[in-house]
Every structure is written in C-alpha cells, then in structure tokens.
Amino acid sequence: MKNNTGMQLFKKTVFASLALVLALHADGACSKDDTLRYEILLNKNILKDLDINASFISTIDVTASKLALISSKDQFYLVGWGGLLPYGKQVQGDISSFALTHDSVLMTIRNSELCYFDSEGKLSLLYSLPDAGMSISRGDRVMYIYNSSGGTENYSIYVVAQGGMYTKLLEMPAPVRSVVEGNNSVMFASGSVLYDFNLKERELKAVTVFPADMEISSVAVEKSSGRIFISAGNAIYALKDNGAVLVSDDLSGTLKCHEGGLMVFNAGEKTIIRITGLEEYIAGDARTQTAPEISQPVHIITNSTVVELKRNNLSDALIIALIRRGKVDFLLTTDEIIDLSGKGVSTEVIIEMRQAMKRQTSETQNR
What we know:
By secondary structure, this protein is an alpha+beta fold. Helices cover 22% and strands 37% of the residues.
C-alpha cells in the first residue's frame, strides 16, 4: 500500500474518473426530469491506464474507509473513484468469495476453506467447509456461508457466529445465489425466487417470483429504509409496496448499498457503477414503472405462484410449506386442475391447495 508509483497512478486516474462522471451527466445519460445519477468507479479504460489485466470474481464489499473491495482469484484490490490498488499479498489457491465482518475482518473463502487475513497480510485457515466454491456474506453480528454453485444434492445456508463454528440455517433444492440480512430476517435468492426467512419464528416465505428464465443474481437491502434491490436477468429492480420499480433494463451485477446509493459490480464487464437519487426516483409517480415481468410480492399465493415455484425446481415439500404459511387464493375448477397438472404441479401439491382453501374459508367464517 506504500507503492509510490501505484499511488501516483491512483491519484491520476481519480481525475480521469471524475471527468467521466461529469461527461456522463453532460451527455444526457440522465434527463433533467430524471433523478437518477450514475457515477463510474471502475471500467476497462481505467484498468488499461493502470496496466491491470485481472479477471475478477463477482463479490464486492465496502471497507471502513469507504473504498470498494474486489478480488481476482488470487489478489484483492481497493477501488476509489477512478483508481485501483492491490490490497494484501497475493493468495495461493482460488478465492471464490469474501466479506468484511462488522469489525472489518476480511473473511475469505479459498477453495473449501474459510480463512481470514492475519497481521502479516496473509490468509490463515479458520476451518474447512463442507464444499468448495461456497459464498459468504455479512450480517450485523454473524456471517452467512452458502452453496452458490451446482454439484451438490442439497444447497445449504450456514450461520457463523463470532468465535464459533458454523451451524446450518436451512436447505434448498437449488443453488443459493445471494444472501442478505434484513430486519429480523434473512433474505436470499434461489433460482428466480426471493425468499424471506424469519429468524425468530423460523418461517420461510416467498417474497416475489420472477419468470423462470430470469434468475436472480444479487439482492441488496438498504436497512435504514428497508428498500430491497434485485438484479435479475439484465435488469435491476426495487421492490415497492405491491409491485416493483424498474431501475435499469440494461445494467446488472452484484449489488451493494452504500452511502445512500447502490453499487453495481459487473465482474465480467469489469465495471463498478454507483447509482444515486434512487429514493426520489422510486417515489416519483411519473417515473415509477411497475415491472410487468415480476409477480407481485407473494403475500397471496395463487395458481400462477405455484406454477412459477415449480418451474424453479422447488421441492413439493417446500411448496407445500409455503402454501401452509401464506394466504392463498386458488382457483381449482376441473379445467384449472388439469392445467396445473399439465404444468408439472403434483397431486400432493394440488391436494394441499384444496385443503388450504378449505382452512382459509373456515377461518373466515369463524371470525
């Protein structure tokens, strides 16, 4: 970090990046009636100026000094407004994910090991994990480790307490792509479904369901407002009331809320863009667009909800559990049942749909 040549390049490219930001605004990337603003923190031109030709993994975090932290398979980098510097020593083995704890300890998954940086800037083994290539994310006081890639029979989310071993939180039938801590719950994406797991009640519910071909790659929560941002397909959405606002239809990547804005890190494109003015944009009636591709947040489970869950390869047991815990509004005529069966919904699930409607009717009559 005391490399003078590197620091000179860092300072030089800060001004280049600021010029890019100003040019972006001046060229009309945001109209005068649009509150959204885009700031470029990193792109291929900046990397070229710094003579850095790294391939990055898709994780991003923010340090206590407000710098973005990204990584290749064997080297961490700090990113400021238009500059990038190596951080720590080169790592032996493949980094698959990392996250900073609440007290700024850099926890890293290398191969099938959970490691941390010691006082000499080297990765030290904390303990072995059940699978290789897992991912990690930060909570307020704990860390979450999860199976984010294929190749295992069950895909689990684990909780790592400070100074303790990890414990299993829950299992899913498909890879878990993103885990974030909300207020008294853990939100995570699997396939094209966003789930919420209530830590106190130990209840799991589906928050919103995308079409099966729009897999959710990243979720971020702004805790002060409770705003949820989702990157799915090639777009970014913000959940609002009973719908969703389309933030961008040509930008996607790993999301990170930071300083009132939203960082979007696209590792493949080697870009970091920070979006600001989001709350004003979301609140603006003229600008709000309810995204037609997304099902409404699943407060009420319908026939189409069940079909989407099935398309996302959820097990019958999990679908039945969601039906039992949620409010339902099923249409179960003969034609609808034939349609459900034709779309892969099992007899067991259809029976549970019938029973759920009977329970709900009975509860309503008894009030």
